[in-house]
Amino acid sequence: MTKRDPFKYFKTSREIIRLAVMLYVRFPLSLRNVEDLLHERGIDVSHEAVRYWWHRFGPLFAAEIKKRRVAGMKSSRWRWHLDEMFVKINGERHYLWRAVDHEGEILESFVTKTRDKKAALKFLKKAMRKHGRPDVIVTDRLRSYGAALKEIGNAYRQETGRWLNNRAENSHLPFRRRERAMLRFRRLRSLQKFAAVHASVYNLFNSERSLYSRSNFKLNRAAALAEWRGLCMT
Hints:
Layout: H1 14-26, H2 31-40, H3 47-70, E1 79-89, E2 92-101, E3 106-112, H4 117-131, E4 136-139, H5 143-151, E5 158-160, H6 166-181, H7 188-205, H8 214-229
Parallel strand pairs: 1-4, 4-5
Antiparallel strand pairs: 1-2, 2-3
């Protein structure tokens, strides 16, 4: 049974749609910035079209990227780094919980209104249901983590330290740049949606350049771009 073509009935080519979504999610650009960049390439679309494409195809692309990567991520169970960041929605503070493995792969993003034990427990259960239980869980000294881990019988896996969680702290930076470009968020649901899509796209294109030679970096970048261009192919 063949899959339904998600690009069916769209007058714009799938290549242009993929390019527009990639530019918007991957780089700290506004919708109008993407419109201008496409116009420079001779592609005449409005920023509202880019908005619609991102809402329609962003989650599809992210789900396919995640499905391909999760199968080969058994090593991610070795060490997790958990951290939460403050995000304002219409002036009200919310919390974006993130789980990152030892290689910088963003495993899970989860938005809550509080950062108590209940929120931490829900986040941990969601991450472990998808990725299994890690050998070590590195957190900051927020007591909600300890209480939640104790309840699910994983308190002995927890490690805390002043600089141990830098991996998670550094993973927040690309999202912060994106948040500023978008002039923040207006709904919790849109924040959760964008955080999940941004994490998958970031994982695909993220290459730690300092760890590779220039030739290997170019190969990895070309492979990531080729995978992106093959998304949602029927």
